[in-house]
Each structure stands twice: as C-alpha cells, then as structure tokens.
Amino acid sequence: MAEGSVSFLLSKLAQILEDEGQLLTGVRTEAEYISDELEFMKAFLRVADAMEERDPSLEVLVKKVRDIAYEMEDALDDFKLRLTHDRGRRFFAPLLRSFDYFVNLRARHQIASRIRAIKSRVIGISEAHRRYLIRNNIMGQGSTFSSISRLESQGDGLLLEEADLVGIEKPKRQLIEWLLGKKSGREVVSVVGMGGLGKSTLVKKVYDDPDVKKQFKFRAWITVSQSFKKEELLKDIIQQLFRVHRKPGPKGVDKMDYDKLRTEINKFLQQRKYLIVLDDVWHTSAWGAFQHALPNNNCGSRIMVTTRNTEVASTACMDFPDRVFPLDPLSQEESWILFCKKIFQNNTCPPHLKNVSETILGRCEGLPLAIVSISGVLATKDKNKIDEWEMVHRSLGAGFENNDTLMSTRKILSLSYNDLPYYLKSCLLYFSIFPVGNPIGRMKLIRLWIAEGFVEGKEGMTLEEVAEDYLNELIKRSLARVVEATSDGRVKTCRIHDLLREIMITKAKDQDFVAIAKEEGMMWSEKARRVSIHKAVPSIQRRHVASRLRSVLIFWGADSCPDSPAPNLSFGHLRLLNVLDLEGAPLKEFPSKVSSLFLLKYLSLRNTNVNSIPSSISKLLNLETLDLKHTQISELPVEILKLRKLRHLLVYRYEIDSDDRIHTKYGFQPPPQIGSLQSLQKLCFVEANQGGDLLLELGRLSQLRRLGIVRFRKEHGKALCSSVTKLADLRALSITAITDSEFIDLEYLSSPPRFLQRLYLTGRFRSLPEWLHSLDSLVKLVLKWSRLSDDPLLSLQHLPNLLHLELVQVYDGEMLCFQAKGFQRLKFLGINKLESLRVITVQQGAMPCLEKLIVQSCKELKRVPSGIEHLTTLKVLEFFNMPKELIMTLQPSEENGDYLKVAHVPDVYSTYWNNGILDYFTLLTKEDGNCALSSPSGSRRDYIWKRVNSQKHKPTPTLNTSIKLLPRVSESLAGKLKVKPPMSEGVVTFLLTKLADFLVERGKNLAGVECEVEYISDELEFMTAFLRLGDTMEDSDPVLRCLVKKVRDAAYDTEDALDSFSLSHASDRGHGIFSCFRKIARSIKDKRARRRIASKIQSIKSRVISISESHRRYCNKNNIMIQGSSSNSIPRMECQRDALLIEEADLVGIEKPKKQLIEWLLGSKPGREVISVVGMGGLGKSTLVKKVYDDSNMKKHFKFRAWVTVSQSFKREDLLKDMIQQLFRAHRKPDPKGVNSMDYNKLRSVIHEFLQQKKYLIVLDDVWHPSAWHAFQHALPHNNCGSRILVTTRNTEVASTSCMDSPDKVYPLNPLSQEESWTLFCKKIFQNNICPPHLKSVSETILDRCEGLPLAIVAISGVLATKDKSRIDEWEMVHRSLGAGLEENDMLMSARKILSLSYNDLPYYLKSCLLYFSIFPVGNRIKRMTLIRLWIAEGFVKCKEGMTVEEVAQDYLNELMKRSLVQVVKTTTDGRVKTCRIHDLLREIMIAMAKDQGFVAIAREEGITWPEKVRRVSIHNAMPNKQRRQVASRLRSLLAFWVADCNYESPVRKLFSSRLRLLHVLDLEGAPLKEFPKEIVSLFLLKYLSLRNTKVNFIPSTISQLKNLETLDMKHALVSELPAEIRKLQKLCYLLVYRFEIDSGDRIPTKYGFKAPAQIGRLLSLQKLCFVEANQGRNLMFELGRLKQLRKLGIVKLKKKHGKALCSSVERLTNLRALSATSITENEIIDLDYVASPPQYLQRLYLGGRMKKLPDWISSLDSLVRLVLKWSQLNDDPLLSLQHLPNLVHLELVQVYNGELLCFQAKGFQRLKFLGLNKLERLRMINVEQGAMPCLEKLIVQSCKSLRRVPSGIEHLSTLKVLEFFDMPKELVMSLHPNGEDGDYLKVAHVSDVYSTYWNNGNWDIFSSLGAKLEDKHSAQLTPRMIKRNYTWK
Q: Cα–Cα distance between 1675 and 1667 in angstroms, integer?
C-alpha cells in the first residue's frame, strides 16, 4: 500500500471509479486511463512517500502527483454530482427526465475533456521532472549537518551526563530494584513512553550503574530501531558477550545464518547470568526475533526493553505484567528545574520572564526532549527582551521548520508518524484540525474519520469498531493520549501532545490536508481539502476558494463577537462537501443551502438554537451522521426516512436538577416506519409515547449498537421486549419512564442481547427483571426510580464484568449488604436518594477493586459504611448532601468516630449545593488528618456540568451576511507554489515563490487559459527544484551556470507575462451611465488579453524545451561537464590552513584577545567549560585561536588536545576519527581496533570513555550551525578535571548555544582599530613600515573600505604592493575599481570567496534579503523599519503561523546579525536596532552578485542605462537616461537616494511613465518634489510608496487606484489631510503621515499629524498608524478600535472628552505594542482612567498632557520597556506607581511633577538604563537609595532650575556611564569642580562621561565638567571642550 494521506486518497479514488463506472458511458477509455494511472501512482508513492523528505526533487514530484490525484477526485465527484437528478413523480417528470438525458451528455463531454487535460498534465509533469532533474543528473542528497538520523539522536541520550538530567532518580531506583530482585527465573522489564521522554537515557544510566555492573557480568546493549537487520544485531550481541568473556568470537560468525546465530547465543548464555538491553523496539515482531535467542535459565537473568509501543511492552512482559514501567512526562516542578538549568546561569528565571517561560513550558507538557530543544532556542534570545520570548511562543509551529535546534525534536517526534501504516497517518493528521488544548470526543472523532473515508471495512467488524481499533493503535504507539476515560474504561476524550500537533499542522499544510483559519479574512490554498476555522470569524470578507473543499469544521469561541446577529450561511460553492460541523454556531434556523450538499456524510448542528429540520433534508442521500444533540428540535420530518445510509441519529438534550447529578433527558418524536433506516447504529433518544407500533418498528433496526428511549409507559413493555430480542448487536440500551412513578415492564425479554455492555433503566420496578443477572458482558448499570422492596444487590453481585454501578431511588429498605465475593470487578459505586437507608455493610472480600464511592442524599444514613476499611483499593470517598452527624464522625477528634475506618482513603470529600455551585470540603487527606469542617480546604471549586438546557445560550459569534467560498482559478495553481515555500537557493528561488502570490491575486481572471497557467505553474515548481540544487553548484560548473541563467530568464519572462495580464484587468469602470458599454468593451479586451497570455505562455513553453534540448545537445550528449578552473577555486579548508600557518610576527592586535582567552582557559573552575570566539569571516578567529592553542602554557596544562576544523560540509565520522587519532597519538597509544569501521555513535562512545577522567582541550574550528555543535558535544564528557572546549564561529547563535552553561565565555572578536589597521597595512606594503606622504591620503581612503577586516587589509595590501609607489594614479585606480577587482584579481578573489561562504550558507529566503543591502549607497545607515517594509513589499518575507510578516522580517534581520553579516550601527535605549549596514567589501560582493542575477542595477552617474532584464534600479543622486520601453517595463522597484541640496524637480518627473507600470516599490525619499506625481496613481501593482522628506503637501483622491498599496510613507512631508478615498486601500499596513518640530530648549519633539477621513476603521490591515489628529470627534476614536491588527498607534490634538472613546478602542487593540497620545495643548487634561484591560504586550508608551493622577493600569504593564510622560503636572510622586514595572528600560519625565523631592527607592526600577528628567521646575532634591536603578547607564537632567546639587546617593549608581546636565543652574555645575569646597566631585568620579550643556545660538555647547581643572576655585568661567558639537534631535 502507498504511504501517507496521498496514498489513502488514491485508494479512495479507485473505489470511486469502481462505484461510479456505470455512469461513465461514453468516456470509458478515459476512465480506464485514470484507473491505470492510479495504479502506477500507487506503486510510485509507496516508495516515494517515505523518501521525499530526504530528496527535494522527489518531494516536488510527489506533490505534483498528489495535486493530480486531487484533481481526479474533483473531476469524478463533480461528474457524480452533475448526474444527480431527483425529478420525483410530478406531472412534468418525463419531460424533465428527457432534459436530464441531454444534460448528462454534456456532463460526459465535460468529464472527458477534463480527464484528457489531466492526462496531458501527467505527461507534462513527467517530462518536466526528466528535463530539469534526471537529465541533468541532479538529485539532492540533503545537507550533512542537518540530517539527524534516529540512531544518532538515540546516541545523544546515551552520552548525557547524569548531572544534566532531572527527575531520573525515582524511575532509576525502581528499575534497579526490579533488576536486582531475588527471583531466579529470567524476567523482562519494559520501559514504555512516547518519543522524547528519555527512555534510552534512563535505561543507559541503569545499565551503567555500579551495582548493576557488579551483578551482571555478561551484558550487551542493542539498539534495534525501526529498520533493523536481525543477523547484524545478533552478531553484535555475540561480539559484546565474547568481548566481556575475553575470548575471540566463534569461528565463521560472519557467515552464520539467523538460526545458527540464535543457537550460538542461546548456548553461550545457558548457564550464565546476563543482562541484555533491547533499545528502541518498534514492533512486536522485533521482540519475537530475539526472545528465543535469550534462554530462560534460572540464573536471575534480565532483559530490558525500551519502546514507544505499549503492545510491544505488554508482549515482551507477558509473563511479568507488573514489570512494565510507563515513563511519564516530567512533573511541572521537574520541568521548571530542567528549563531553568538549561537557560539561566544561576538556574533562576528573572521575574519579568516568568510568565512567558511558564506559558512556553506548558507547550512542552513535560517532554524532556522538547524542554531541552526549546531551552536551546531561548538561550540564544536576549533575556532583556520579553517580546523576543513572546515571539518564540507564538511561532513555535513555524520554528520546527526553520530552527536547527527544534528541527531535531521534530525529527524524533516525526519518526512515530513515519512508522505508521498509511491508514493511520491520515487519522493522526486529523488531530491537527482541532484547536490547541481541545480535548476531542472519542465518538465524534470516530464518526469524522468514517465520514472522511479514512476507515476501511473489515469482515466481521463495523466501521466504528475498525475506527476504534485505529484509535487504540495510536494510543498504543504513544501518539494519542487519553484525557478522560469513563468509569468502565472506555476512552471519553483524547488529544495529542502539543508539539506533535504543531508538527502535524505543518505536515497537513504541506499536503493540502487542511487549512487552519485563525484570523479574520484569512486566505487558504484552493487545493486544501479541509478548512478548520478556530474561534470567531465574524466576517469572511473575501471569496475564499471552496469548490474543492471536502470538510468545513468551525470551532466557535464562547467569548467572541457577542450581540452579533444570527448568520445567514451560504453554501452554494461547497457542493463537494462531505463533512460540515457547525457545533456551537449561533444559528436559530436550519441553513437552507445545506440541503443542496448532495455528497454530505456528516452534519453536526450540536449546541445550536435550531428548532426544526426541513423536509428538504431528504436530498442528503449520502448522510451518515446527523448530530442534533442539545438543539431545540423535538420532531423530525417524515422525509428523514429517505436517508438510507444514516448510521448515527442523535436528537436529544439534557436538563440537570440543581440537587441531582443525573440528567433528565428529552428526545424527539420520530416519523412512522423509522425501521426503514436499516443502517442506523445509534438512535438517541426516541419518545415512546407514540404507541407500540413505533417500538415494534425498532426491531427492524438490526444494525443498532445503541438505543435510547424516553417517555416510556408500562404498556409499551411487550412491544419493546420483542424488538430488543431482535437487536442482537445492541451494546447500550437506555430506557426512561414518562414519570418517576410509571412502571416499566421488561419481564417479556426472554433472550437479551448477548453483548449488551451498558444498561440505563429509569422507572418503577416491582422486582428487577430476571434476565438482568445473565448479562455476562455488562460493564455499566444505572438504575433510577426503581423503589424496590428487596435488596437489589443479591441479583447483581455476581455479574462478572460489572465495573460501574449507580443506584438512584432504587431501594426502600433500611440496610444494604455487600456480601463477600460479590462485585469482584466493580470500580465505581454511586448510591443516591435511598431515603430509608440506615446501614451499609461491606463484608470482607466484597468489591476488592472498588476505587470510587459516592453516597448522596441518603438522609437517614448517619455512619459511614460498616466494613469500609476492607476496601483497600478505594481512592475517592465522597459524601454529597449528607447529614451532619455522618460528617462529624469523620473528625479525628471525635470519640467513637469513623476516622480510622477511612484513614487509608487518599481523598475524602463532603460536598454541598450552594447557590448553583458545588462547594467541596476536604474532610481528610493522607498527609493531614486535622481538617476543619467549617472551612473549605484550599480553594472553593465551581463544579461545571454538561450543558444545562434551561440556561440561556451564551452570546456566541456569528457570521455577518454569509460565508461565501467562491472558486478562484489561480489558487489551484498558486497553492502548489505557496503552500510550502520551495527551498531552492538565492534570489531566483525567491522569484519563483513570489509568483504564487501573483497567481492568487490575479488568477480569478484567467478563465479560458487555465491549461496554460497549469502548465506554467508545474514548470515553475520543477524550475525551483532544479535551481535549489543548481544554484549551489553553478560556481564550480560553468555549463550549469549557463543553464541556471537561462532558466532564470524564463522565470522572469513568466512573471512579466502574468503581471501584464493582471494589469490589463486593473481598471475600474465605475457605475456611470456608460458603465454597460464599458463592461462590453472590457469583455472584448479581456478575451484579447487571454489570447495574448496563452500565446506568450506557449512561447515560454517552447523556449524552456529548447533550452533543455540545447543543454543536452552540447553537454549531456557529449558527456561534457566542465569542473571549473583550479586556479580560481580556493576551497574553504585551504584558506583555513593558510590562516593557521601565519607567523605571530605578522599579526597585529592579537595580544589582548590572546591574553583573555588564555586567562579563561587556565581558570580554576574544575567543570568542563566551553569558550566561543565569534565574528564575521576574515577577522582572524582561527589564527587567534591557533596561537592560543600553540601557547607553551596551554601545552603544559592540557596534555590531551585535538584541533578539528569543522567547516560547512563536514563528515562527522571522519572528524571524530581524526579526533581519536590526535588524542591517542598524544597518549602514545595505537588507535582502537576497528576504528575505521565504527559508526557515528560508537566513535562518540570511544571518545567519551577515553576522556572521562582526563583534562583535555578540544578546538572545534569554523563551526557554522548549532547542529554541528550538537554533533560533537555529547562525545566530550562533563568531567571535573578542568577540561575546556574552544569554538570558533561566524554565527552568534552557535556561540551562545555552545556556551549555554557559561554565557560570559563568548568572546566577540572585533575588527582592528584604525591604528591597528594602519600598522598592518603599512607592514604589508612598505619596506620600512612607513607610508610615503603622497600616498597617505589615498591609502587612508582605501583602508577605510576595509573597515578593520584583517583579511581585506592583507588582500588589498597584496594588490597595492605590486603597484608602482611613485604613481598615485595607479593607487587611485585600485580604489575606484575595488568592486571589479574582487572578481578579476586573484588576491582579492580569495577574500571574496571567504566572505561569500557566509552568503552561500544562507537559506534561500535570507539570500534575497542580504542582496538587498546592495541597493543602498555606500556609507548609508539603513533604518531598520524602512528595510523591513521594503523586504515585505518585495515579497521576500513569508508568513509564519503566530507571527506578523513584520515580526518574521525582524527575525530575518536578527538571523543575518547572528551570522555576523549585518552590523548594528545604532540601537534605541530599549535595545531595538535603529539602523544597520553591511561591511563595505561584503557590499561590493553583493553588488556583483546582484548584477549577475539581474537583481538590481545601480545608477551612480548621469545618463546611465541598465540591462534589459534587471528587476530593480537604485539611483544614487543621478538621473539615468531615458530607457527603452521594453527595459523599463520589466522594473519592479525604483529607489532614489538624493543629497540634501539636490534641486532638479523636472528630471524626477521623467522617471514616471507607463513604462513603469509593473512597479512594486517606489522610494523617492528626499526627492525635490513639491507636488504628488500624478503618474504614480497608474501604478496598479505598487505596494510601497515613500515620499518622505519631500515638500509634497497634498494627496489626490485618485490614490484609491493603488489597490495593492501596503506602505504609504509621508513622514516629514507637508501633508496634513488625507482624502476619503484612502479607505479603499484595504491592503494598507503602514500609514505614516506626520512631522516633528523641535523647540531649541526642549529635546522631545512636537508632533504634527493629519486629519483622518471618517470610517478609517475600514483599513483593517493597518499595523502602524501615525499620527491621527483626534480633534475630529469621538467617532474617530471609536473607529480606531476596529483596527485589530494595529501594532503602533499615534494620536495628537487629544482632548479630555475623547478619553472614554479612546480607552474603549485601546482595550480592543490587543496586539498594540506602542501607543502615543498627545493633548491639543499642554494644559489640556487627557483622561485615560477608563482602560480596564490594557493591551498585554504594550512595550512603548508616550503620554503628553495634563493628568490629575497617573492611570492605575500603567503599573500593570509588565511588557513596558519605554515610557515617556510630558506635561502631566502631577502633585503626587509618579515614581511610586512606576518603580516596580519589571521591564522598564527607558523613562523620560518632562513637566511631570510639581513636587520638590523625587525619591528612587531601594529595589525600584531594577532594569532601567536611561533616565531623563526635564523641566521639573520646583524640584529641589533627588534621592537615590542604595539598590535603586542598579542597571542605570545614562542620566540626563535638564532645565530643573531649582535643583542646585547632584542627586543624593548618585554614588550608588555603579553602572552609570554618562551623566549630562542641560541648561542647569550654575551652582550645580560648580559643585562638580574638583577643587570646589563641599562639592560633589567625588560622588560622580566613577562616571566615565560627565557633561554640562547649554544652548548657544542654535547649537548645543557641550562642556566636559570633569575635563577642566580650574586653578582658581572661585572662577566662574568654564572651558569649552575641544570639539563643539551640533546636537541634532529626531
């Protein structure tokens, strides 16, 4: 059978063909072709499904085959639907049937056409696969460092140190106790649990325990795994055993067969005491392969088995069922210890991270593997930035794909999925549909699986029983987990581990198995077969693709959209739907369109307010499940009888009496002849008061498994008994009388159903029916209202399988006696309302298995049951609403009480009903017998029951208007590109992924050219797979490079064709009088456009085939593959070795870092420490570390040393062998025998064992990825010998991961200083190390380009050393041609290759981002947010679940910084990157690469032209020539960088023409523009528009034509109002319209915003909105609350009256990260007290305006990092409210406080780094207590005219680096004079920089207050510092 969900789908299609073949008259040939093709697909997928993860090219092909399979299913289902006509028996029926005949002919013609198109596509896909991959012999092998096999991961656990483990002691002690037990026979001990729990690690620690080693001399450890070879493992056992015996193995062991090997082992162990571990056993067959080889002797031998499968464990321990050890997840406490141990140096979590840490840890659910992996990710995050940690939490699912550390966890957990048979894979994937934390009802899940077609019939079993088997198998394999079980042992609810669910979501998404919609307006791929909508989606605004959907499941949030109107659901486009689950939907009527869903199998309207079912339901002829539980329906139409496939009919509801915990049921009136529904298996609950005929009808339902009847009368008894006798398969029966006094007569039942398991009888009995005691299968019995005179226990006590017994008003006697040997298996007993009962007696031997006993409302029972002490298994004893006398007898202090009788019971409760909730009182616990009756123990708990029908429905979410899921041609094509981003490398790959978005946006207009677009979509995917591999190989293969270039050109042509086509549909014809004629003209134009694109795609198709043929003709056919010039290729390893051979005399600036590293290495700590040296390529990391490694002190201290160069493409086994050789050579011993044939795990074990007691130094040089570190770390033991590991890397994540236990041992190697650079430069060029004066200027200019990079300095020096030193022009030429020199000069080429390695190692999505830096001019400081928005507009950034696109882009930037490629230029005080750049030489390399790929052209000179294929142009203060039309028409981005004094507006306007019509990005920041260029509005595809820093003052209404605009940046333009038409830009995310003006005496700018149009809340995509003028009224403030996606909001001109409206909106903006609110004047009060629940993640808050007091909610902002308050004029000290904000880093107070004293209290402001105090005019004193502001780095005090002395206690601020006084009184400044009497000089002596600053004629004069020593202490004259700086503010 083929594997996975694809295979299931194909087998299902084969069945469809079989079932519907008779309808295919006229298309028989095509149908047979489909059938044949399916068979071949199955054969292919059987192999490919397991291999695709390892082979990207095969992955593409599998995806294509899956798409075709889906398409075939759609075609056949559609055909089936078209042939469905029910004309009935009306008058015109014959005429209509004749009409149907012609309709059917048309349907057959259409299906034939579709099948031929599919056939053509199959052939095309096969050709494309051959064309790109097979013919070019490119089949991916996968990356070495990222492939972590099961056995390797297993080995990691075996090498862990015990000190690193948590929670291991108790299980270890238990297992050792079992192993060392006194039984002489052979015993098997199994450890079972899900993957990642640490089973192997635990057993290895047991195996290595000294006591175990002492007891078992003959031992062997065998790792079995999934795909094992029996013979190989048996040989391994023999080798291990004979090695222990110190004897050579048996002769000819290598040639022995399986039986001979088993005999040999059996014979050897026959008289010996042995311990054999079989680790990682997956199947019972694996146990069977070994068990008979291990003799069952009487020597006390033991076998240990570890497995994920409970069936394996129980099979292995068949003779020892008590020796199965289920390894549980870690407890909450243990999880927390492990989590902190792995992240925080002192094992203590900082308070500000505790909440988010606990949330993340909750997702791990105690799984050690997950905790360690996620800890590894978090350890690399900034512990000061809570938002980074929050992002990890939100994006945990996406992290499994993109993070190496989490990827290993994914692989471990995925192994269990991969091992599943195909039919279980779909079932496990289905768990991804349900929301996180949602327990899933067992029967609901089973019915859904059946409706989806996952369950295959088995002879002798119903589908439900087969599905139950499937679920049990998933539970056995430790994949599904039981959440709640019934008292009789059945699974009630289940779920899967949260991390496994994330992995299933990813797999389901990749396979188009399901799309999960969590947000409003979310789009999904057309190929998705299922949609799961989580929580409320009030309005699905856009027309989602629905024509292919098979299932829609909606999970409504109870708190979503209250007060919304009832929905009007429209299902017109869901015609192929099989499953529709609307449980809990706010529906009052049955959705009329549901009746048209002919193929529907499952319909749930559970928990809705629907009160009637229409007769049209009869159209749902395929319906199998109709779930109307807890609706208002009480009657079904007679037409329901037509649903002959109906299996489950649930129509009932419960009501619960407040003092009774057993429900009252209400059923429905069924139609007559309900017996015709002969497929029914569950029928609940039928109202019986319609007479005996109905009950006789029930006897016809021979398939019934469960039957429920209510409103039963005595006279119905005979008819019902007659029917029940016929229901031989009945498993559950429930009968409820019409009243509590009505008798139910069941004595006529002579032969009850043999397999009846659950029986519920509610009604009066004279005596219990005789047949009751014969129910040998009965496990649950509930009796109610019986009112028997005789003790019922006598009839029931010998039921052999009874587990659950409830008796409610059953017995009128005074005594119940549970006799010895009665109820031998009973686990639950409930006794309720036995009102005459006085005594309960339990004889010894009765109920030996009872676990829970509940006694309720037995008012005469005053003592606990006599003999209750015999119930030794009792765990819970609960008394509900019982007499006080009974409760008092349980008091420990009560004389003659019953306390001792129940002392053995862990939990004893007394419970009372109190105002609608249940109050629980703990009467006794095992640990504390002193309980007080009057007070609840612990907390009072609300007891929540199942839904109470009498309660009103809680407000639930609704859908506005209707859900319209309409087909879009393009998404079927785009889904294939978009669902899983292709992994090909470089900018070309990005381009191909981007095309998916084009198809989504414009494909709806492609009707008529679907085939051409299908072709081009398939072709692009194969191009992607080819380029993924070809892009990394082209540098070494010129022929391949040529092919890559041609394929790239074809891709560009495709993009142009699609964009041009979409543009032709862009115009809006409006609603004018001539709109009809315009539409006709548009229709004609559209047809012409379709013909053009069809022709264009055909042309591209021919070109692609021609390219492929040319490549084959000239290269493959002649077997010519050029390998590249050896002179130009300098491998990484060679460059690495060059660095290691440099003499120390040739080095500069090495002494300080060398000294520091040696100091760390020789430190006194005995534990193993890791030291990392990190920096960009070319800094000399390896050179530095080699000098440290060779230092004589190092050699003296570390006798066991090894140097291993890892590099990018390393082979772990080879490096480990090299390490062994170096270590053994140092020990002067020969290498271990057989080292060359050892596998990875064995090599690690050898190293680990050798180094266990030795002091060693290992250098891991040039480590690129965390996975490379993980490959070695467990081989190097954590001994206490003072061992050290040195790591060099370019990646900060590698550095922080390897130094997780010693984060202070990361050494960032910085570039050389200017002086060091000059020394090295001169040393390499000039003989006497002195530069001639005439070359000094040009030398300094060239040297600046090197930016302190030693590699670059040496390389450029090598070039200059060959130049004539007398000719300055030659040196100038080198400077001007530096970029070209990197390609043409051998010396510079080596530098380029070193720097290019980091680029080549990037994943595809980061390559485009790094190339983008080439766009910006040299020396340009690039703003972080500008860069991020540009990346987004260019389409480089792909969505990740749980993250905004902006957050993903921020992650991209962080990754580039971690890899030492991007440098931070400036950060904000709260730690965010403000501006960044890349090294100048790296930029030159990026420019060269971007040019080669047509990525960008740089225009630096007047009149320049650019290549025809280029996609972007960057203009650096120049005006290019007018371009040819075809050249400009291909441009996607135009960015112009202007100098400040540029003044030629007219040439700027020449840039705009229709030739730029495909533009996406237009950045004219700083351009000399005074008006908005009118040509811009015709750029329909534009996404990014910046007119920042221009003089544009007006935006025209025609901007509404830019429908795709995402960013509109008008910052520092002169625009003050936006047109109403701006609201049409529904994709707008960033709207920046504001400017600053700075008062000379105030450093906080005054902001000016814009007048927003009414109803700005329509712009639902907005994430940043700055700055809106509030003085347009409260309606505007309310509107802002609709912008749910807002991250940053700025408001100016706020008035007091706006406060309430603004607060209401802010509460709804739950995603808000930054809020700025400024009043209209400084005296205007802003009232923000109405915010009850501020945004949880608010990080930056700016409030400008008067306040009576600070709002209370500010002190609750745990995420706040930056706070600026201005004009507040408070009378109370604001510090009291702010000092405990846990994450506050930046605080500015401007005119905030009118008091005279500010006191910073001890332990306040624990993380504050910046403090600014401004214009506190009455302030006379500042006190800083010891312990306040322990992290403060900068303090600025400004314009506080009454403050005459520095802050008291400032000397406590030991971290203070900068102290600045602006415009402060002369007395304060003079007090800092060193010679001043009673001055404060000594108080601030520890501060590095102390300044006094004054405003002077438009400039800030800065004086160094400590830098000038005045001779005359009375002098008032201050000496200015050397440099007078212009201080420019934002």
A: 17
Domain stops at, among 1364, 1396, 1428: 1396
Please tell me whether residues 1150 and 1287 are part of one structural domain: yes
Tell me whether residue 1677 is in a domain: no
**Residue among 1458, 1500, 1469 nearest 1290 (CA):** 1458
Q: What pLDDT shows up at residue 815?
A: 92
Give the end of a domain, one of 107, 142, 177: 142
Answer yes or no: do 571 and 666 share one domain.
no
3-state secondary structure of 1522: coil
* Claim to verify: residue 1358 and residue 1283 sit in the same structural domain: no
**What stretches of 1798-1844 show up as alpha helix (H) in DSSP?**
none
Contact partners, residue 1567, CB within 8 Å, separation at least 6: 1536, 1538, 1542, 1548, 1587, 1590
User: Against a cut of 0.85, is the pTM above it?
Assistant: no
Residue 1056, Cβ neighbours under 10 Å: how many? 19
Task: For residues 1800 and 1930, state if they share a domain.
Answer: yes
Q: What is the pLDDT of residues 639-689, one digit of tens each?
A: 999 999 999 999 998 876 655 555 678 899 999 888 899 999 999 999 988
Q: What percent of the chain has pLDDT over 90?
A: 22
Q: What region, left, alpha or beta, does residue 546 occupy, with left being phi > 0 and alpha being psi -120 to 50 degrees?
A: alpha
Residues 6+ apart with CB under 8 A from 15: none
What gap in Å lies between CA 1589 and CA 1542, rounded to an integer?
13
State the average pLDDT over residues 1761-1787: 92
Report the distance separating Cα 1518 and Cα 334, nearest Å.
65
- Residues 1804 and 1832: their CA atoms lie apart, in Å, by 11
Q: Do the strands 1200-1205 and 1797-1800 form a parallel or antiparallel pair, or are they unpaired?
A: unpaired
Let me know if residue 1529 belongs to a domain.
no
* Mean predicted lDDT score pLDDT of the chain: 77
Alpha helices (H) in 192-229, listed in sequence order: 199-207, 210-215
Same domain, 455 and 532: no
Q: What is the CATH number of the domain that holds 286?
A: 3.40.50.300
Per the structure, how many domains does the chain have?
Answer: 11
Q: What is the DSSP string of 35-93?
A: HHHHHHHHHHHHHHHHHTTT-HHHHHHHHHHHHHHHHHHHHHHHHHHHT----TT-TTH
1631-1666 pLDDT tens trace: 999 988 876 555 567 888 999 998 898 898 899 999
Q: Give the confidence band of 1891 by pLDDT, cuts at 50, 70, 90.
A: confident
CA distance 509 to 506: 5
Place of tokens 């146990």: 287
Structural domain harbouring 666: 657-778
Interval 525-552 mean pLDDT? 66
Cβ partners under 8 Å of residue 5, min gap 6: 422, 425, 426, 429, 511, 513
**Residue 894 belongs to some domain of the structure:** yes
1156 in the same domain as 1035? no
Amino acid at the residue 294? L
CB atoms within 10 A of CB 1509: 16
Asked, for residue 1292, whether it belongs to a domain, the answer is: yes
Q: How deeply is 1149 buried, as exposed, middle or buried, from its count of CB atoms within 10 A (0-12, 13-18, 19+)?
A: buried
Q: Where on the phi/psi map is residue 1674: left (φ > 0), alpha (ψ -120 to 50), or beta?
A: alpha
Residues 1302 and 1254 both lie in one domain: yes
Mean pLDDT of 971-990: 37
What's the number of CA atoms in the CB half-sphere (13 Å) around residue 107?
A: 20
1429, 1565 contact by CB (below 8 A): no
Model confidence at 1691: pLDDT above 60: yes
**Same-domain pairing of 880 and 844:** yes
Higher pLDDT, 565 or 185: 185
Assign residue 1093 a region: left if phi > 0, alpha if psi is -120 to 50, beta otherwise?
alpha
Task: Identify the DSSP state of 330.
Answer: P
How far is the CA of 819 from the CAs of 841, 842, 969, in angstroms? 8, 7, 74
